[in-house]
User: Fold this.
Amino acid sequence: MTDSVNDLVISAIKDRTQMKKRVVVTGGSGFLGSHVVEKFKSMGSEVFVPRQEDYDLRRRCNIERMLYAMRPDIVVHLAAVCGGIGANMKNPAKFFYDNLVMGAELIDMSHEFGVEKFVQVGTVCAYPKAPPLPFKEEDLWNGYPEETNAPYGLAKKVLLTQCQAYRSQYGMNAIYLLPVNLYGERDNFDLHSSHVMPALIRKCFEAKRQNADSITVWGTGTASREFLYAGDCAEALYLATEKYSGADPINLGSGSEIAMHDLVDLIKKAVGFEGATVYDASKPDGQPRRCLDVSKALSSFGFRARTSLEEGIRKTVEWYAKSPHSDF
Assistant:
């Protein structure tokens, strides 16, 4: 057997072994989590999803019960308390405490239980308010986050330090991934707590149903964001779990940004709403710009986003139009 063929055989054996791993996905019944669960299951993993009503992850005793019952080889930590600018401004203490405590206790207990690999999902909100563009992982600590979401971003960033500390002292294989703004099917479309993309989609649907002349959008419309389709993010998380074991954080994104006024126009077109857009400049824009350098995800585990923004918006709009929440 040649060396190249032998390498392929070894790789195939490793892949089959990995696919049989027991994987716990916290937050697996949520928006991103549901896509991640589907991805891991499609690749042959045995996936367990702890329900919030059964396991409050803010309590160490519940984490212990969960890990004892499920005996995972891998933990993918997605459970989070999060939302858009309004929700962040209304709940800074809750967003800080819940996210910090859940992650800190889960990382520690996963170490105690000898979990083979821990995947911590962070947030683009952890970046400084105005780092050089595109955002590079090495700039993560070079400034304070944008004020409206700083408590959430800082709580998540502390977990990066914990992952690195546990790797250094205990040899724990804990990796940290930084996804940009996500969107897609099964997102949260509640106007009081949702992120910008689902909120805009719902506003356009409701305006069209009511034959409204316009929609009102927070901010000036000049801020920019980068978006990653949830299905693509699930693919990235799977690849990173399979192939990446480094200490450094890794950005997950599409590598391109769009101004909010252009995003609004894309969504209006997809929904079929032809009214005007009124920008409420008395409301905050949030971080001025967001665009990630995604080169390390490509070089480290071969991830490149495949879904264009237009295609992803179309899929999301089509899903929402058929959902019981749209009344459309």
